[in-house]
């Protein structure tokens, strides 16, 4: 039966007084019924809340995380640690972060020595609140128990970060207390990274870590003379990294167990690389490599002021070397210097080549890079500064590296040099992509990263992507990263992909990223990051 007045609803009809009484009488019963339903809903809601309060805590008691074996929980916690640096004393990161999840996890984390086996110590950050933070360093190392330690000590950055520093006398006392704690743990040091001044080095002068495997030092190399002469002669030492503005040529004379090193890095600071004079000379580097037959990776800054003179008798064999990174500094740096190194050193297992030549090469020198590829056709990872390469050498260079799977390119020059030859035509991003559009060139390419792009047209990019997607799935391009130069660009100058295009490439397992760089280098330089300590 149709409810009364249904045909009047939604109209402009005005009911009579009699009809108004009928409607009121009808609503009276309906309102009472609605009140009963609301009361029932309230009662059921209370019952539901009571049941929920009863069930949820009991479900938590039998949840899987509570029943994880301690070894599985430890493995999970260890995976939360930073993978490229030491842990920092911040509640934003593991291990302190996992201590704030619940009391059970906190108890578990505090009982896992390996979780506390790495620590980064920016001295200014520690001294700024010395009473609590020096004690925190000590407690951290106590938690590590007998674990092998990875320690990094970074010198005072107060002037950069604005941290408050105590009076000089108090600072020395506090630093002395901090260093005393570190010295007590030196028998456990396995990896040490130091960026310290001479005063700090004197406090560490007598240490001789018996199980030291990796040593990294940044600063004035003369400070190394303050350390125990046996510091870098331990039988377990495998990796040495030295970075300094000072002259690198005395490095081969340091008392280091060169014959057992598998990883070596000798780097000059960036402020020195353009003019040379302090980087390692070729005549010093080749004999040094002859004393390091076990090297797997090599990173070196070389002075190109010295004219290379190849001597077959001076050639050396690095039979295990897989990665070679070289930066050539000096006004006369060119790929011919790198070709000389490759000719002087036998590297049959070489798979990774990263070259930086800061000045523009002549057409003849540009072809030297192709000769390097001809000698090492199995290189899979190549990084070069494209703008230093002559345009005519582009095709021959990349055809000489048929096994490349990963290419990293710097497309535009960062340094302004009055001696830059404007008559020599450098390579650009567009010619590179046009060359790589031909699948015969670098047929195994899977990752391409190009930084410092000034301009790139959409048709050039589309043709490159379409060609690479025609490859079989095992050799298809997987990642493309394009970083545009630090200039003001209009949207029309950046070949953005539409949503449909992005979804299509993603369906083909191709990840494409665009980075129009607009943040100033000054801001990037001083942005807070854990390696230099977090702001208090």
Write the layout of secondary structure elements.
Elements: H1 17-61, H2 70-79, H3 103-110, E1 118-122, H4 123-128, H5 130-143, E2 149-154, H6 158-161, H7 168-184, E3 189-195, H8 198-203, E4 214-218, E5 239-244, E6 263-268, E7 280-281, H9 282-290, E8 297-303, E9 316-317, E10 323-329, H10 335-344, E11 345-346, E12 352-357, H11 363-366, H12 368-375, E13 381-385, H13 394-399, E14 406-410, H14 429-436, E15 447-453, H15 458-469, E16 479-484, H16 499-507, E17 511-516, H17 521-525
Parallel strand pairs: 1-2, 2-3, 3-4, 4-5, 5-6, 6-8, 7-8, 8-10, 9-11, 10-12, 12-13, 13-14, 14-15, 15-16, 16-17
Helix pairs in contact: 5-7, 10-12, 14-15
Structure overview:
Helix 5 runs parallel beside helix 7 and helix 14 (429-436) packs parallel to helix 15 (458-469). This protein has a 15-stranded parallel sheet that branches. A two-stranded parallel ribbon has the order 9-11. It contains 17 helices and 17 strands. The protein is of the alpha/beta class.
């Amino acid at each position: 039966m149709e409810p009364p007045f249904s045909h009047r609803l939604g109209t402009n009809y005005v009911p009579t007084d009699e009809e108004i009484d009928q409607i009121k009488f009808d609503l009276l019963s309906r309102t009472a019924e609605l009140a009963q339903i609301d009361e029932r809903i309230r009662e059921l809601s209370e019952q539901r809340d009571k049941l929920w309060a009863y069930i949820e805590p009991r479900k938590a008691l039998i949840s899987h995380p509570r029943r994880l074996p301690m070894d599985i929980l430890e493995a999970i916690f260890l995976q939360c640690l930073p993978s490229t640096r030491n842990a920092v004393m911040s509640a934003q990161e593991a291990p302190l972060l996992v201590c704030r999840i619940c009391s059970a996890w906190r108890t578990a984390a505090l009982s896992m020595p390996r979780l506390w086996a790495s620590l980064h110590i920016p001295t200014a950050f520690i001294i700024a609140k010395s009473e609590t933070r020096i004690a925190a360093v000590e407690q951290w190392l106590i938690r590590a128990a007998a674990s092998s330690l990875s320690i990094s000590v970074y010198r005072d950055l107060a002037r950069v970060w604005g941290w408050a520093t105590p009076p000089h006398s108090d600072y020395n006392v506090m630093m002395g207390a901090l260093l005393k704690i570190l010295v007590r743990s030196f028998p456990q040091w396995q990896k040490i990274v130091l960026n310290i001044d001479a005063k700090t080095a004197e406090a560490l002068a007598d240490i001789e870590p018996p199980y030291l495997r990796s040593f990294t030092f940044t600063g004035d190399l003369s400070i190394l003379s303050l350390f125990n002469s046996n510091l870098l002669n331990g039988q377990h030492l495998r990796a040495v990294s030295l970075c300094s503005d000072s002259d690198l040529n005395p490095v081969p004379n340091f008392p280091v167990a060169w014959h057992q090193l598998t990883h070596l890095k000798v780097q000059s600071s960036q402020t020195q690389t353009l003019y040379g004079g302090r980087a390692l000379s070729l005549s010093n580097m080749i004999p040094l490599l002859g004393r390091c037959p076990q090297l797997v990776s090599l990173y070196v800054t070389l002075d190109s002021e010295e004219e290379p003179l190849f001597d077959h008798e001076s050639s050396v064999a690095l039979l295990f070397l897989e990665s070679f990174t070289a930066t050539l500094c000096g006004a006369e740096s060119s790929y011919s210097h790198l070709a000389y190194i490759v000719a002087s050193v036998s590297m049959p297992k070489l798979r990774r080549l990263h070259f930086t030549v800061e000045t523009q090469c002549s057409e003849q020198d540009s072809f030297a890079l192709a000769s390097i590829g001809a000698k090492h056709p199995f290189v899979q990872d190549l990084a070069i500064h494209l703008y230093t390469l002559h345009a005519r050498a582009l095709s021959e260079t990349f055809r000489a590296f048929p096994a490349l799977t990963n290419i990293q390119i710097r497309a535009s020059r960062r340094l302004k040099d009055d001696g830059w030859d404007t008559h020599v035509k450098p390579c650009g991003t567009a010619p590179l992509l046009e060359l790589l559009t031909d699948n015969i060139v670098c047929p195994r390419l899977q990752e391409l990263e190009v930084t410092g792009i000034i301009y790139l047209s959409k048709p050039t990019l589309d043709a490159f992507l379409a060609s690479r997607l025609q490859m079989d799935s095992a050799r298809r391009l997987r990642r493309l990263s394009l970083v545009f130069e630090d200039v003001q660009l209009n949207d029309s100058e950046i070949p953005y992909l539409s949503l449909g295009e992005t979804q299509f490439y993603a369906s083909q397992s191709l990840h494409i990223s665009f980075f129009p760089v607009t943040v100033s280098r000054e801001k990037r330089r001083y942005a807070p990051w854990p390696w230099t300590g977090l702001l208090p």
